[in-house]
Specification:
805 residues, mainly alpha, Four Helix Bundle (Hemerythrin (Met), subunit A), two-stranded antiparallel ribbon, 34 helices, 2 strands, elongated, transmembrane, ND/Mrp_TM, transport, CPA3_Na-H_Antiporter_A, ion transport
């Protein structure tokens, strides 16, 4: 592949981030047309990706790679095959329409530019996820979807519900993200490659490996949290606190589909085992029924759609678990069908809310005359959601029923789950398309009228595509479904798609049964909703409430831990620090036979000769005597002032030792530290009585004295062990040889601090600077003794005047 194509694929994955950075500027200059301008970016990506349909349909895949961390052999690599192309086309195509929709939906909002930037970054994260070949890059984009969704769900941050929904989504999906990171690292260690394309053909070895269950659990944890599988589904309905364009994008082509993509991508590598099949089919089936029933229980249009998304995600996971050709083909078809009709229905719900002031389905009726184009968009989307002929939903339903055509009781059980789940979803689709639009016109908070054209293009185009693509069955099957399904199964797959109605086929009668049950659900929806709400009230507890309990418990536990370790008692802090120092120094040294340096042994030689006192001159003995004298004066000081001065005497003695043994720079530093220490301590202690002596309890004196002796002995013993060995001069020789030619400095210590340890020194300076700024702020912000706050002083003056009168 040439560098231009490499750059083009990388730009398709990373381009939305560039547009996101420019979105506020575009909004400032384009105003209400910002959505139209920014929609050009995803539309261009969609058109660019369309050019890959033909080569990918010929069972080829395209790779692109950019250097990322060459020293570790990491490349920012992307690849396009049938699966990634299907997802990328869906993301970019729907994304263009939703950016256009968002520009009109939030027209006049003061932060619309920021919102559009977040949306484009969200799109970029999802495009990067599905196009990434490097598994670390996949993880990076995976986490970016969580971060950007957090920003979007909590966009209206003034509302507590929005903040809670954003935090909940971030916490749950990040738990899965940590599982994905561990799984990716473990796979790399087992296979030796970071590239997903490099895992081809390694599935048998992985499935037979002893760590296969652990790898599978980690990837399932990531997929189940992202794609809201029961019992980790509860964050998704709360994400409805986001503006409607976010919901339309998040539920159709981004975020929640990340888990579906991950499971599909890992099927050749991890799929095909009993553990894989049983887990995915079980959790997927439960999630399907749970979400479908949950949608009937709701009356808010967005909440109804959110619950149906949970059900659809469960359906996709179930089909991936089945893993046969028909099931995987159904995954591809249903993913596209669901993305088209779910995005369209969310846009319809947003338009109804935008123009009527309510989303409560029980308060809506008769809008077809006032909002005819919105009604058409809702009807087209609902047809595909019900699964009627000539729609993509119908093709997907036929394929999933075909996947369970075996005469086996397990297949019949799963078939019953699918029929019931699809019937419940069909009933909800009928309610969404019929109840708000037909019947007498209801009174709403706002006088209803048709939505702006930018908010109508999306529902009409997506609803039309749900029918138009299905009509082109042969092209759709050959160029889209077969390449994607073949990629998932890593074998050539044949197409079974057909729009023909075959009354002699059991699949046809299963579809008829689904439609009949769907009509019954629609007619009895109010009664079913009442029953479900009574059941909820009888249970009295939800997983959502359980999350709150866990979070509140975690906060209380964190507070208790903080109060225990950060009690504000400086004396105890120092005791803990020096006790840790004593353990850190003494335990390893004693464990390695460090006491042997004190005694001559046969094995270690005559250590006493090595540790003999050096031949000191009289003035050197004098400096040591001065240090001892300072120590004694400090311990026996009669007052605080004497203790401060004695501490300075001992520090001065240490500085003289540095000076006498050839370290004048250290001596100078030590002198400066001692002078500043004595001055600062004296100034601080002026607020206390310097002529007093601090009385200490015996137990405190014994504790601190013991710690001091142990720490001093431990450090001395460690130095003895180090000095008793042979000096390795390679590091010092390196500094000596390179300080002048490389760093142009003759003072080796300065060169080490400024050049070789430059970032370390910069960090130390930054810490000191931050501490100084904080101290300055505290000093400047402290009120003078006796002064009152302005409002308090004003009230007191008023009271005094009133009393005088």
């Amino acid at each position: 592949m040439g560098p231009s194509l490499d750059a083009s694929i990388a730009l398709a994955a990373l381009g939305p981030f560039l547009a996101a950075a420019l979105a506020p500027v575009v909004h400032r200059f384009a105003g209400r047309y910002a959505g139209w301008v920014l929609a050009v970016v995803p539309a261009s990506i969609f058109i660019f990706l369309l050019g890959f349909i033909e080569p990918i349909a010929s069972r080829r895949f395209v790779q692109a790679s950019l250097e990322w961390v060459p020293s570790y052999g990491l490349n920012l690599s992307f690849f396009i095959d049938g699966l990634s192309l299907t997802f990328a086309l869906t993301i970019s195509g729907i994304g263009a329409l939703i950016i256009l929709y968002a520009g009109s939906y939030l027209a006049g909002h003061p932060h619309q530019g920021r919102f559009l930037g977040f949306m484009l970054a969200f799109m970029g994260a999802m495009l990067g996820l599905v196009l990434a070949d490097n598994m670390l890059a996949l993880f990076m984009f995976w986490e970016l979807t969580s971060v950007t969704s957090f920003l979007l769900i909590g966009f209206d941050h003034a509302r507590q519900a929005a903040r809670r929904g954003a935090i909940q989504a971030l916490v749950i999906t990040n738990i899965g993200g940590m599982g994905l990171l561990l799984g990716v690292i473990l796979v790399q260690q087992l296979t030796g490659t970071w590239e997903i394309s490099g895992l081809r053909g390694l599935g048998d070895g992985m499935r037979e490996h002893g760590l296969y269950p652990l790898v599978l659990i980690l990837f399932l944890m990531a997929a189940f949290t992202k794609s809201a599988q029961f019992p980790l589904h509860f964050w998704l309905p709360n994400a409805m606190e986001a503006p409607t364009p976010v919901s339309a994008f998040l539920h159709s082509a981004t975020m929640v589909q990340g888990g579906v993509y991950l499971l599909s991508r890992m099927t050749p590598f991890l799929g095909g085992t009993d553990m894989w099949t049983v887990t995915l089919v079980s959790f997927g089936g439960v999630t399907l029924i749970w979400g479908a029933l949950g949608s009937i229980r709701q009356t808010d249009l967005k909440q109804m759609l959110a619950q149906t998304t949970i059900a659809s995600l469960g359906l996709l996971v179930l089909l991936i678990g089945l893993g046969n050709e028909a099931a995987i083909a159904a995954v591809v078809v249903y993913f596209i069908a669901h993305a088209l009709y779910k995005a369209g229905l969310f846009m319809v719900a947003g338009a109804i809310d935008h123009e009527t002031g309510t989303r409560d389905i029980t308060l809506l009726s008769g809008l077809s005359d006032k909002m005819p184009l919105t009604f058409i968009g809702a009807a087209l989307a609902a047809l595909s959601m019900v699964g009627l002929p000539l729609t993509l939903g119908y093709l997907g339903k036929e394929e999933m029923y075909l996947a369970l055509a075996d005469a086996d009781w397990r297949s019949w059980l799963l078939l019953a789950v699918l029929v019931i789940g699809n019937a419940l979803l069909a009933g909800v689709a009928m309610a969404l398309a019929i109840k708000p639009f037909l019947g007498p016109l209801a009174t709403t908070p706002k006088s209803p009228h048709e939505a702006p054209i930018a908010m109508l293009i999306g529902p009409l185009v997506l609803g039309g595509l749900g029918i138009g693509v299905a009509v082109m069955t042969d092209w759709f099957a050959h160029d889209i479904v077969v390449p994607a399904a073949s990629t998932v199964l890593d074998v050539a797959v044949e197409s079974h798609l057909s729009l023909a109605l075959k009354p002699t086929s059991i699949l046809f009668w299963l579809s008829v049964l689904t439609w009949v049950l769907g009509v019954l659900v629609f007619l009895q929806m109010a009664a079913i909703r009442t029953t479900l709400r009574r059941l909820d009230a009888a249970i009295g507890w939800t997983l959502d409430q359980g999350f709150d309990s866990v979070m509140f418990g975690l906060i209380r536990f964190s507070g208790a831990v903080t109060r225990f370790f950060h009690h504000g008692k400086l004396e105890l802090y120092l005791v803990v620090v020096f006790a840790g120092l004593a353990l850190a120094v003494m335990v390893p040294v004693l464990g390695m036979g460090g006491m042997d340096v004190l005694l001559p042994t046969h094995e270690l030689g005559d250590w006493s000769a090595k540790l003999s006192w050096p031949d000191l001159r009289i003035y050197e003995w004098g400096v040591i005597a001065l240090a001892v004298l300072g120590l004694g004066a400090l311990l026996t000081a009669s007052s605080r002032l004497v203790a401060i001065l004695a501490l300075g005497v001992q520090g001065t003695a240490v500085a003289l030792i540095f000076l006498l043994f050839g370290a004048p720079d250290l001596a100078f530093t030590q002198f400066m530290v001692e002078i500043l220490s004595v001055v600062i301590l004296t100034l601080v202690m002026t607020r206390l009585r310097l002529d007093e002596r601090d009385h200490r309890q015996f137990e405190d004196w014994a504790r601190d004295g013991t710690l001091a002796i142990v720490c001093g002995a431990g450090v001395s013993l460690l130095l003895m062990v180090v000095l008793s060995g042979t000096l390795d001069p390679r590091m010092s020789d390196f500094f000596t040889a390179t300080s002048v030619p490389i760093a142009h400095g003759h003072n080796i210590v300065n060169v080490i601090l400024v050049d070789y340890r430059g970032f370390d020194t910069l960090g130390e300076i930054s810490v000191v600077m931050a501490a100084g700024i904080a101290i300055l702020a505290l000093i400047r912000g402290k009120k003078k003794p006796g002064t009152l706050a302005p409002d308090v002083a004003k009230r007191q003056r008023k009271s005094a005047l009133k009393a005088a009168k």
